[in-house]
Specification:
Length: 115
């Protein structure tokens, strides 16, 4: 059983920064790609970024150049550094691990960008 726990969300002004963390309970974290998703009020959950076990990264166009995804396999933890935040980044952010046909999700962490 894989457990994922996100942290680091909060209220920040436009242009500010936040760093999200996702701690995983299982060793499988170290060999699997990991993703961040987000869901804004009234909208569908959308993919934000991916980091492979080897550190290769991909980003949604909406966050490219502002967000940085990374991981520390020794700590079973993934990160999302978010800079130059905009009001449209307001959402609940979730980390995801897919193992075979099973998706594991954390409980989410709220990010609110507002003045």
């Amino acid at each position: 059983q894989v457990q994922l726990v996100e942290s680091g969300g909060g209220l920040v002004q436009p242009g500010g920064s936040l760093r999200l963390s996702c701690a995983a309970s299982a060793y499988i974290f170290r060999i699997m790609p990991m993703d961040w998703y987000r869901q804004a009020p009234g909208k569908q959950r959308e993919w934000v970024a991916r980091v492979t076990s080897g550190g290769t990264t991909n980003y949604a166009d909406s966050v490219k150049g502002r967000f940085t995804i990374s991981r520390d396999n020794a700590k079973n933890t993934m990160y999302l550094q978010m800079n130059s935040l905009k009001s449209e980044d307001t959402a609940v952010y979730y980390c995801n691990l897919r193992a075979g046909n099973t998706d594991y999700w954390g409980q989410g962490t709220q990010v609110t960008v507002s003045s």
